[in-house]
Amino acid sequence: MSEDAVTEKDVRHVASLARVALADDEVDRFTTQFEEILDAFETLEEVPSVDRSAELTNVLRPDEKRDSLSPEEALENAPETEEGRFKGPNVS
Amino acid sequence: MSDAFITETELDGAEDGVLAGKTIAIKDNISTEGVRTTCGSAMLEDYVPPYDATVVERVHEAGATIVGKANMDEFGMGTTTETSFVGPTDNPAAPGHVPGGSSGGSAAAVAAGDADLALGSDTGGSIRCPAAFCGVVGIKPTYGLVSRYGLIAYANSLEQIGPLAPTVSEAASLLDVIAGPDDRDATTRADPGEGSYADAADGSVDGMTIGVPTQLVEGADKGVREAFESAIESLEAQGATTTEVDLPSVEQAVEAYYVIAMSEASSNLARYDGVRYGHKSDADGNWNESFAQTRSEGFGEEVKRRILLGTYALSAGYHDKYYAKAQQARDWIKQDFDRVLAEVDVLASPTMPVPPFELGESLDDPLALYLADANTVPVNLADLPAISVPAGETDGLPVGLQLVGPAFGERTIISAASALE
């Protein structure tokens, strides 16, 4: 068993970090399921220490101007726009 | 309309090319300019990409006609294609059963003859599982062989686009078309090796050494094991040598896969806020309340589950316990595969430890469903290529055999797989 049981408060906390509003019945279900799933993840503690695999190499390209979407194309899928810009909700 | 598709289309390709006259289904998380691309999610129900994915450009130039955008589990998160916002797809090879997932529509379209070929994507088995369940061939390429430009991300360090087809040689021909470097995806390999994949489908397994990892066979359903063992006997009769190999690292692969995939998903899906594209809630409220409501309405339950668990695994106090440990497991798995693949040419196992589930049977218990991915997820964690090829039936339900090769060893697994046809 996991040392700290998952509580409804934990589920509401991560949902708030992830900006996902949950209904009460979803919180109930997720609390039970997360307990079981995180308990399974505990088996990762048995993984031995190994050398890190080969270092990865960064792939860089010259920083040159290239074609991109036009403003009209970029705005085509936006639910709301104003004067050629995306329109989001009020910040506060 | 066939239930394999979310959207039907008829987009003709170039007049000549190696795929001229062929029809193809494209999984609905691969961007098609001017044709809506939903990822199986209400979040993207009306999203119409302003550009084509690189693989879509390439199949067009090769002459294929795109006949539809194929159904899939929402954002690729599932093993049954039942989490799609449009509902499930039936399995043409086993009616009343799921087609597997998440590329279930792609496999079903090929199995039903609605398309000659299909493209899917494979993050933890999402090409190989539906190929096995629908009795068709599916290839998960080595990480970096095929461009992901235009593939809508779920867990980008794990996923590759790959082909599904009725035969190994047709799947290999499609791989020839889509493989190769792309300056719009910096993770593509500049030099993935010479030679055609289609030519590798020569039906020859003579002299090849096939390793069978005991850990990937002993947990399988009895009927699946019997079909797998008789396929192995057929390869031996054609001149292959088989040997049991030990891969202890795969015991924690499912857990490592889900921690990494969910963590990447929590980051990749943060972009859906209803401002630039996608569903937007009508609810009032400030910035945070509005985003939370938009995401609550747009995402289905499995997607929410993975975003929340990924957020949890990356959050302060838990990062080292879950995410860092999962990366350590990934390193171990890579090294374990490298070790055994230095001794044998390919590895063989059942693709799925179980035959296709009945529709609606498995949705209630997420953990049980995650464990069904035991044989496919290690390959994504190790960045290796794998193919699923039909290997008979159990009680009338298709069984798939998976062959895993060394990095960029697609030609070897294609050659061995073609010996089973």
UniProtKB/TrEMBL annotation, chain A:
Record's keyword terms, sorted: ATP-binding, Ligase, Nucleotide-binding, Protein biosynthesis, Transferase
InterPro entries to which the protein is assigned, alphabetical: Asp/Glu-ADT_sf_sub_c, GatC
Gene Ontology MF, one: asparaginyl-tRNA synthase (glutamine-hydrolyzing) activity
GO biological process, one term: translation
Pfam family, one: GatC
EC number, UniProt record: 6.3.5.-
Region (Disordered): 55-92
UniProt catalytic activity: L-aspartyl-tRNA(Asn) + L-glutamine + ATP + H2O = L-asparaginyl-tRNA(Asn) + L-glutamate + ADP + phosphate + 2 H(+); L-glutamyl-tRNA(Gln) + L-glutamine + ATP + H2O = L-glutaminyl-tRNA(Gln) + L-glutamate + ADP + phosphate + H(+)
Family named by the database record: Belongs to the GatC family.
Protein function: Allows the formation of correctly charged Asn-tRNA(Asn) or Gln-tRNA(Gln) through the transamidation of misacylated Asp-tRNA(Asn) or Glu-tRNA(Gln) in organisms which lack either or both of asparaginyl-tRNA or glutaminyl-tRNA synthetases. The reaction takes place in the presence of glutamine and ATP through an activated phospho-Asp-tRNA(Asn) or phospho-Glu-tRNA(Gln).
Assembly notes: Heterotrimer of A, B and C subunits.
HAMAP family the record matches: GatC
Protein name: Aspartyl/glutamyl-tRNA(Asn/Gln) amidotransferase subunit C
Gene label: gatC
TrEMBL record, chain B:
Keyword Transferase assigned: yes
Short name of one Pfam family: Amidase
Residue ranges, compositional bias (Basic and acidic residues): 182-192
Enzyme Commission identifier(s): 6.3.5.7
PROSITE patterns cross-referenced by the UniProt entry: AMIDASES
Region forming the signal peptide: none
InterPro entries registered for this protein in UniProt: Amidase, Amidase_CS, Amidase_dom, AS_sf, GatA
Active-site residue list: K27 (charge relay system), S102 (charge relay system), S126 (acyl-ester intermediate)
Enzyme class (EC, first level): ligase
This protein's UniProt keywords: ATP-binding, Ligase, Nucleotide-binding, Protein biosynthesis, Transferase
Residue span, Amidase domain: 11-413
GO molecular-function terms, A-Z: ATP binding; glutaminyl-tRNA synthase (glutamine-hydrolyzing) activity; transferase activity
One GO CC term, this protein: glutamyl-tRNA(Gln) amidotransferase complex
Family: Belongs to the amidase family. GatA subfamily.
Role noted for this protein: Allows the formation of correctly charged Gln-tRNA(Gln) through the transamidation of misacylated Glu-tRNA(Gln) in organisms which lack glutaminyl-tRNA synthetase. The reaction takes place in the presence of glutamine and ATP through an activated gamma-phospho-Glu-tRNA(Gln).
Subunit structure: Heterotrimer of A, B and C subunits.
Name the UniProt record assigns to this protein: Glutamyl-tRNA(Gln) amidotransferase subunit A
Species this chain originates from: Halovivax asiaticus JCM 14624
